[in-house]
Each structure stands twice: as C-alpha cells, then as structure tokens.
Amino acid sequence: MDILIKIIQLILALTILVVVHEFGHFITARIFKTRVEKFYIFFNPNFSLFRCKKVHGKWRFAFFCKNVPEKYITHERIDPITNKKETTYESIDLSALPLDDWRTDEETTEFGIGWVPLGGYCKIAGMIDESMDIEQMKQPAQPWEFRSKPAWQRLIVMVGGVVMNVITAYVIFTGLLISQGSQYLPTSEVNKYGIRTSSLAQELGLKDGDKILSVNGEYIEDFSQIPMQLLLEDSEYIEVERNGEKVKVELPEDAIAKMVNSRGALMSYRIPFVIHDVVSGSIAQKAGMQKGDRIIKINEKYVPYYNEFVTEMANYANQNVDVAVVRGNDTLTFDVQLSNDAKLGISAEPMLEYKKQEYTFLQAIPEGFSKTGKELSDYWKQLKLIFNPSTKAYESLGGFISIGSIFPSSFDWIAFWRLTAFLSIVLAVMNILPIPALDGGHVLFLLYEIITRRKPNDKFMEIAQMVGLFILLGLLIFANGNDILRLFQ
Q1: What is the crossing angle of helices 151-180 and 439-452, to 10°?
Q2: In this predicted structure, what is the pLDDT of residue 399?
Q3: 46: Cβ contacts below 8 Å, ≥ 6 apart
Q4: What is the pTM of this model?
Q5: Binning pLDDT at 50, 70 and 90, where does residue 83 land?
Q6: What's the chain's average pLDDT?
Q7: What is d(CA 204, CA 148) in angstroms, rounded to the nearest whole number?
Q8: What's the CA gap between 234 and 390, in Å, rounded?
Q9: Which of 34, 392, 400, 406 could be disulfide-bonded to 29 (CB atoms 3.0-4.6 Å)?
Q10: Cα–Cα distance between 71 and 344 in angstroms, integer?
C-alpha cells in the first residue's frame, strides 16, 4: 500500500508539471497565432482514453477510441534496383471528408488523455519535435506554422514551458510560505550538545560532539544547509569547537566524491535522553521509569545522548540490563528484561528549538523569489557535479524509482506540494539543457539562427532530433538501470 501511495503521488505531481510545461508552449504559440494541433496528458500511441475538439463551432468528444488518422496517407515501396525502401506522403483531400470529421477543422486544437501515464505533449504545427511529423515538414510552409514565424517568436515559444515550470515552483513556494511559514533548526541550537557524525563525517575529520562554527569561514544559520554548502561550494575546511578549543578540519580532495556517493545523512544533532513519554503497559512503565527521567547509563556504560543509548540497547535484545537515570537530585537504577526489539516503550524529550518565520502575503512575494532562485542555483550546481567525472556523481543518478521514493508513504499535502515545487525546478533545468529533442536544444539552434541569420535546414533538424532522442533514451535507461541495480545491492 505504501508503494502504491508513492506511485500515485509521483504520477499526480508529474502530470501537473507536464501539463503546466506544455501549457507554456501552448499559450505562447497561440499568442503568435501558431496552430497547436494536439494537447495531450500522457502519451497515446494508437489509442486514447479521451479526446475532444471543437469542430466548426461544436465540441465533439470521444472516449476509449483509436486515434484519428493524420492528414496524410503514407505510401511505401521497395526500389527494385537499389532494394531501398522509399516513403512518399499523399495529402488527404479534407474537403472530401464529412463535415463532422475532426480533420476538416484544422484551426482548433485536439485535447486528450493518453493511456501511457508518463508525461504528455503539445504538438505545434510546422515544428520538428518528438512526434517526428516528417510528412508535414515536406509540405510548403504555411503562415500559421511554427517554422514560418520569426526566430524571436519561436524562441519565446520554446522557452515558454521552462518559464511556466519556474513560475509554478515560485507560486507553490510562495503559497507554502503564506500558509506554513518557514521552519529550520538553527546551527546554534545544534551546538548546544554538538553534532552526531556518520562514518563518512568521521572520515572527513569530524567527531561526535563537534560544534560547527563555520564552513570556509562562513557561518551557516540553517543547520540542514551545511552538507549542501560542503557539496556545492567547493569548501576546503570546516571550523569546529572541540573540547572547548577551535579546530580547523581540512577536507580531503575526494570529499565531494565521497559525499555524492554516500547514502545516509552526513551529520545530525544529538540530545540528552530525557524521557518525554512512557507508553502505558510498557517495560519502562512496569520498571518504574517516569517522564522527566534522564537516562545516563546502560550496564555501567555511560550513554548520556539519545543516539548512544539506542545504539547500545540494540546489543541487549532479550536480555536483562540495568538502566541508570537521573531523577531530580537522585540517580536511580532499574533492572529491566528486554524483548526481541530491545525497546523500553519511551520517547525522548525534544531538547532543541526550531526557528519558525511567519510571512504575510506581501512578505512572501519577495521571499518566494529568493527561495525559487536558490533552488534553481543549487540544482544547477548539483547537475554540474554529474558531468564531473572525478566526483562519480553519475553513479548516483536515479530514475522513476528514485524520484518516487522521495514522496512520503502516507499522503501529506504539504510534503506533496514541496516535492512538486522541487520537481518543477528539476524539470525546468533539465529541459533547458542544450540537448536536441529538449527545449534547450531548440533554443540553441534558434540562438544560432538569430546570431548568424541562417536557419538550420529541416534535414539537419530531423537528424539532430533523432540524435537527441537517442541521448535521452540512453539517459533514461542508465538512470533507471541504476535504480534497479540499487535494489539488489
């Protein structure tokens, strides 16, 4: 059930973002009086779950139907001399079709829902895109086609999708700031008791109990941003307070590579284990433990912090242990018999205070811009790591399983919208990459045309589109292959 909920959230988020992205292309194309032949949610090879179109002023609908044939008849023959296949396209005489045939009204857009629940598309007339509608490109250019428009208009149409994704992320971030505010754990709070280090953090030179003073000389207010600062800003050292003294921890040259390929958190906070609640009927209650007791020892081993207690207790499943606590001015010891899960039935008192900032509507507007800009900048820096062979970040590249796994296993609308905003940033950045078949590839060719005043010919664009599709297919296979390999590791 948990996996199903994650899948539903993933499909819903991607559907929203693809519709928004394609709408950016759609609305800019219509502004410049360019025909948009189809606008589909999901892909519809041979078959559509639903489609509709306004035909000669009247809306027509169809459900669970085969796709309407295109406006051309394809003829194929094998040349008897060269033995090569030749393809020709014959235009259908639309005037000979019944008036209620959808193809007779070329000016309106067909909207629909496909049956392959990934992505969607906006088919713009006279444009070489993923539909590879080559037969249309062989016909004389029409004034309402994409290829007939000035280069600057085509450029705006191509960036329309990316712009809409950025706007969507901004709207979501701003809405969350208004409704939820922002909350983070200040580094100063973590420094009350020092950090809890992972094995990787210890490799980098950090120790449990270190208090983070600065990264490359800069104090980081939000504790959760410290690993990101280390990863993205080419940090060379961390300054910490250790046993009352300032220590400069120099980071090794391969620090970024190690962080990129690490699965767990680099560091966390640690807190004393003060009992917040005792479960009724639990081992702790039967032993006599109470709320407010501070656990300090297990079998004479000093474990003043929560993480140390949990790690040590795991060694005593189904055994008797002595648990020492401080209650007021007294130290009490309880003899308890643990079960196979080695748990007492208690929870820890939250000892650190999160900082929360509330925003009015007017305050959230500029803060939303700042948040969106930072997310764009951070993701662009992360993407650059993937193309740096020394970091081996490409090994951590993930596909649909990795994306789906970031969603919670229960439906939380706040978490859903935060992740949707993040994925909108990802979609914007990925689409603007200068790869043929992506918006960025089209933008690259359009910039070339604007600068040189020479338009790449259609044959070149067809080949570039095919190369781009192969590149994207390769990346898709590689990313999802990584996911599958990780399942067996």
Answers
A1: 140
A2: 62
A3: 66, 67
A4: 0.81
A5: confident
A6: 85
A7: 58
A8: 13
A9: 34
A10: 72
